[in-house]
Amino acid sequence: MDLYERENLQDFLVSLFGNQAQSWPMNEKVFNLTFELVAESTACSSAMDVVPRPLPYGANPFTWLKKQVRGAFIRRLNENKEQYVVCLRAAAVRMVRRFQMAAQGI
Amino acid sequence: MRKYQQLLLITLILLVIFTPFSFANDLILSDKLVLKYQTPKLITHTQNSLIIKYPDWWFAHEILDAQRMYPGIDLSDNLYNFINAIFDESFRSKLPENLVNLSIEQAQAFGVTPDNVTKKHINEASIISVYDEKQNRGDIYIFEERMIHHIDTSCTNSTFKSIIDSIKAR
Deepest in the core among A12, A51, B42, B122, taking most CB within 10 A? Predict the structure, then answer.
């Protein structure tokens, strides 16, 4: 991820998970969890409009998505974070531990 | 006598093989509760939670913070009713409307159904839990006088039940 993608992703995750996300490294694992969080939420489907689908079973979203698409996906999340935080907040409670583990490298 | 000893030995070996948990450690939850847990592969501490990780499953513990559970929402005046409302519709009438909707959202995210919620008591503490078979994960909330604990886990249903059984009075 380039600096711009990392900043956008971190801003979005801080909005969703609070200050704890300030210390999370923005890496492939964290991106893939974010992608999973959004993809599984039917209420937030508009964020997936920029993503070609279907994602092949077992594919790694980070490597499967072209860099431009990945950047557009993250940018859309961050630019509309007020909306996405509302539709993802319950799923975020369910997935927060996986984000924390990814951030800890485990 | 020799046959008796062999039988005893076989029984002990079978017990070791088929007992999913051997609880060797204490996680002190409060002055009144303890969680017995088996020796993990690793333990990590994050900003607000303790994660106990095994090769193929994990559980985590946190004390609920009413001001940090959701961004921009302060549950301080409603935390007890809100958590109960995730599992029990009758509590929703005690909440403001925005929290009613949120409790429904959270119930859906946890995979709550009429059949997968369990309740129990340990002295004054009450425990409510849900296990979602589809996601192989579960959530346990423990209500004590001064705090609410949240234990979430990714594990099999039998391990989930073992975790609940391993919460004991001190």
Answer: A12
Each residue's pLDDT, cut to its tens digit, for chain B (170 residues) gives 677 677 767 766 665 555 555 568 999 999 999 999 999 999 999 988 999 999 999 999 999 999 999 999 999 999 999 999 999 999 999 999 999 999 999 999 999 999 999 999 999 999 999 999 999 999 999 999 999 999 999 999 999 999 999 999 99
Minimum-distance CB partner of A20 among B47, B102, B105:
B47
The verdict on A25 touching B (C-beta cutoff 8 Å) is no
For residue B135, which residues of chain A lie inside 8 Å, CB to CB? Answer: 94
**Domain of residue A72, residue span:** 3-103
Determine, for residues A91 and B109 on separate chains, whether the beta-carbon distance falls below 8 Å: yes
Instruction: Measure the CA–CA gap between B111 and B91, rounded to whole angstroms.
Output: 18
Nearest CA-CA partner of A13 in A101, A88, A105: A88
In chain A, how many domains are there?
A: 1
Q: How many CB pairs under 8 A join A and B?
A: 54
Question: In degrees to the nearest 10, what's the CA dihedral of A11, A13, A18, A23?
Answer: -80
